[in-house]
Amino acid sequence: MLSNLNxxxxxxxxxxDIQQELGKKxxxxxxxxxxxxxxxxxxxxxxxxxxxxxxxxxxxxKHQLNGKYIDQAGRLFLIxxxxxxxxxxxxxxMQYADKxxxxxxxxxxxxxxxxxxFHQLLNxxxxxxxxxxxxxxxxxxxxKQQRAYITARLFIPLLDMSTVQYDFDFDRIHNHGxxxxxxxxxxxxAIGQEKYxxxxxxxxxxxxxxxxxxxxxxxxxxxxxxxxxxxxYHRYAIRPLAMFAELVHRFRPELDIFNFKDQVIGKTIQAxxxxxxxxxxxxxxxxxxxxxxxxxxxxxxxxxxxxxxxxEDENLLGMAKIQNxxxxxxxxxxxxxxxxxxxxxxxxxxxxxxLNEGRxxxxxxxxxxxxxxxxxxxxxxxxxxxxxxxxHGHFDTLGLTYFNNNQEVLREYGFARWVNVEPKFGGRxxxxxxxxxxxxxxxxxxxxxxxxxxxFDVDIADNKxxxxxxxxxxxxxxxxxAYAVDFYPGVDQQRTVLLVEHEQLAHPILVDxxxxxxxxxxxxxxxLQYQGQIIRTNINYQQHQTLNTLGDDFGYQHLWNIGQGxxxxxxLVSWLQGQSYYTWLSASSSDDTLFFTRxxxxxxxFNLRSESSLILRRKAKNSLFANVLETHGYxxxxxxxxxxxxxxxxxxxxxxxxxxxxxxxxxGDDINLTVMVNNDPNATSESQTxxxxxxxxxxxxxxxxxxxxxxKRS
Amino acid sequence: MLSNLNxxxxxxxxxxDIQQELGKKxxxxxxxxxxxxxxxxxxxxxxxxxxxxxxxxxxxxKHQLNGKYIDQAGRLFLIxxxxxxxxxxxxxxMQYADKxxxxxxxxxxxxxxxxxxFHQLLNxxxxxxxxxxxxxxxxxxxxKQQRAYITARLFIPLLDMSTVQYDFDFDRIHNHGxxxxxxxxxxxxAIGQEKYxxxxxxxxxxxxxxxxxxxxxxxxxxxxxxxxxxxxYHRYAIRPLAMFAELVHRFRPELDIFNFKDQVIGKTIQAxxxxxxxxxxxxxxxxxxxxxxxxxxxxxxxxxxxxxxxxEDENLLGMAKIQNxxxxxxxxxxxxxxxxxxxxxxxxxxxxxxLNEGRxxxxxxxxxxxxxxxxxxxxxxxxxxxxxxxxHGHFDTLGLTYFNNNQEVLREYGFARWVNVEPKFGGRxxxxxxxxxxxxxxxxxxxxxxxxxxxFDVDIADNKxxxxxxxxxxxxxxxxxAYAVDFYPGVDQQRTVLLVEHEQLAHPILVDxxxxxxxxxxxxxxxLQYQGQIIRTNINYQQHQTLNTLGDDFGYQHLWNIGQGxxxxxxLVSWLQGQSYYTWLSASSSDDTLFFTRxxxxxxxFNLRSESSLILRRKAKNSLFANVLETHGYxxxxxxxxxxxxxxxxxxxxxxxxxxxxxxxxxGDDINLTVMVNNDPNATSESQTxxxxxxxxxxxxxxxxxxxxxxKRS
Lengths: 714, 714
Prior knowledge:
2 copies of one chain form a homodimer. Chain A is α+β, with helices and mostly antiparallel strands. Chain A has 2 domains: 175 residues, Alpha/alpha barrel (Glycosyltransferase); 346 residues, Beta-galactosidase, Chain A, domain 5 (Distorted Sandwich). The first copy, chain A, is built from 16 helices and 27 strands. Chain A has an 8-stranded antiparallel β-sheet, with no helix packed on it. In chain A, a hairpin with a 2-residue loop joins strand 15 and strand 16. The N terminus of chain A is likely disordered.
């Protein structure tokens, strides 16, 4: 079968189709142009196959690049026919074959076994995958001797290392495991030893249970397609997953891989994409950078793959518009043609979605609510009420992020890591990742008794998850609600967040009802991570003349207490972020204290970014933090324009709350809303609720209701 | 003459030419499209002529917008012939005519007299200018009665207010004065009362001395064309200046205005443009925002005007490329055609330039040095060694800013003002503008004895200026040097800054030699305002566990002392800003102390931005701060790339310095430079200097020399 192929992932028809896009302005044409320019730049550099360096060092980076360009040049040889690409690929592979076995293994640095090129096997697998792809494109161009030499001195040792020496690490159910099986399968296909394909698909034991690709894709994802380590790690795993799926499709069509297990491959691609903010950036769920986005190579490949093998999806074309590129492969051609066939492609506007977690979908969920306003701007609310994301998990169950006007408003700090920045601990995770970034107080939720959820214990956290209450994902009032039981000893929590459209307001308002229940009195710190300049507040506060940290542990040691003041009945703080104003209002009392903080304390190496937060502190047994966030106005310093720097909402009052229901009112200029939420875990969308607070009765059907009152207030 | 015109600033040929660009992708076509869309949006709103409001309030903004759209709709009536524009313009003007005299005057709030529409006369003049332009476009379409009504009830009262009631404020030599005369002249032209043109040109007294346009443009600018309040105020004055010049050209061609006084109009436009950073943003010299740029309306008009009336200039076309628009006027058509006639237009690459200050060019200068690297990136160095900018002046003589990689690296804080943000003190200058933004310590230079230059006394400062030493504005080593004598009692200062290309480095290095001389011991604080994340430093420092301010006055009260440590022989700090790394190295000793600071202390209303600086403190009589700033590497978090996070320069040593010369060496990987500077005020480019330090002799010709030594260092 191999002899009929020009590459393990492209046949002659794919290549002909791609050739026809050369010089065109189609997505494939543009992608090809970029690929050629990028590859040609690299071809101008002297060849170099170095030895060892630490992660982020020269040799590490060089091996990585060599792998990447072996693949790119290989593909370009097939597409352009230019032998310079074949020669380059050959020269590099021959040099690696000369040198590979002479390179000793790296010292072991972490739990991942070391390779010969890299400090950890994961990187060796990534390299193997690309080198094998490149080899498969040029192998017919090589002499028999060259093929034998490269196979014997480079690929077989690599395959042995993966499947024999480190067999224990080969096909496990883990995102690294997908890289392992994908690279071994692709290498096996490239050198014509198909046994490697089969052991990669079915596991070393061949039972599809403990390892192998089919077991991995059956077990790694929730029924919703969600990957528990979050989109940052998902997009890293999706790259080998998509390439391996394409290989399986070509070499083992009888497995019907794209329909396997209820189309798990398509579903997990869609789940990953459905987490993204409207600008294509992924919310930093669990350890993640704030900037990873759908232009990542893995996502580009996955979107192209989906487009070829699954039904057309308008939002996917919108994603391609943001990506502005496709995978240079037959799958990419399919996407490029679908895209070109449209008169115009809109930016994606994804529906609201709740993605369940756990192998059976019963370990909580991640909720994504989106609402588009009349100007086309999309507000997106992300709430985490799923599982702890294993070793990368943040202790932020019921945590929230919020995005609109092209920026994250309630922000996730992301990881404490300067990725690939060698002087910053080799670009690895920093101590402050544990001491700050993963702590509860670094997020947008309540910290109890100045501590962390589950006492920052991963084992405890791994055994818990949020409990979904409701998810209403369409209409002018959308919302979701969930519980976190005993994440702090003796304290139960429920959070209900809504997006509510109102004719007086250009953007929906965010209503956030964070309820805590306990038999003992606790200190509750409701915190919001914001960015920008404070514009006004209605509280009397003192800016401190000497700054101290807000605490000694659980992340508090990293927060400077900039200022504090007694809260008001409705505490109000406005800030300006970018070109937009935001006003936060919270029902509170003079017993509460508002803190203004800034991160960067106890940070001897300047590893943390200096970022600001608000913390509303209250001592109580049972308490409801009832908040509204209004998005308003416009500011553009360059043209000196400012509109509506003050919001329209003035007051948030709690009418009442208990285990059955919460009722609040929101008052402002021509705004008078009553928000009613059913808190009973047994409620359904049919439930009739009637409840009395302050001698007034409130009734509604279902989980929630928002009523407009006619009485106007000034 | 008037009867032949369709507008006071456009004749029939201009209009025909503009009409031909409708629907085209030329700069004029695009500008027209934008103008139409913008105007049509406004036409859909209900007409409203409100009463009074404070600055930044509703009525203020509405009057401003009404004025703007009277002009835009007027022009569009002539260009499109669509009577809806004429009707809108008429309706608005009639409503203003109904209401104007019934509106009382605002209360006087500042030194500027109040108007009827606005709190200060300046805004009333801006409004009058636009309303008059719009009226001139539609007056032939009005009935005789309408013309009489608008003239009698609106324009004549406005003209009377300007030229009779507030005659003392009318034609003075000041940037507000240009708005006054331009608006009165244009109104006079629009209603056919040309006496107003003449009194605006020649002054109320008609003597071209104490007032009027000709006196203003003769006296406001230095021979170099520089305006002493800096580009932020210059671009505001240039708008009425350019429009009035066009009017003079049309109505008083005999004055040959564009050749008047050695082409002062063309020269001052060029001077303003020549201050801009490579991205078109103006350096914030004196009180200014950090974001004002050449897309400002005044600059767009000025560039179009220049293009019509002065010889073609490639950099001006480059500016138009950044602006991506032209003035919708005959001048704009000229620019649009010149632009379209080029096969391609490059981004502007302005030459280095020294702009002298003072009416005779003898009050110091502003220096702008630019160097483009092989990748096309332009580094720009700006040094202020001119006059104190009057009431808006910052106390930063010998201050520096530095720009490359599309960002300001050594930063100017800009004004402490949230312009037009009503809850921030009506968008006006804040107390912190005086207490921080204008203080010496807020800038990139040396503060002596924790004080401010000239003791923050404007009167003293207005009588001083920097003294230029040399300016070398071409070649691979460029530089400038200047003195500040007695800006601190008993302390003289000289700063020499160089940009030096080196084959080992992708970007030029910035060499900064800041020399202080005194007979007494003083505390010298050399400060750098940077932005981004500290990546590494070679000093042992302590981050403080409790933060205090760095001082009590002169801006120090606004700086948190984050951490401090003993300096090294060469003190090194690297940081990451955006996608680029920067390393600062300074020759120092263990007697010096380095402070890490952050602004925002003593700021009860959160008026200041939180920004970071480095301060190297030294006690000495005579001292040289010898610094190098290296730009290196690349970081892109989204694609997880980091290259060359460590710079190549390791050491900066002072060989010797005195009143005659300074000699330093710069050592690094394959880098070994000796930098020699002549400090003698009497030096010339022919001077031969020979000086001995540590028994070694150094010789060179001219102001400065940079020599490469062959001895390599590891």
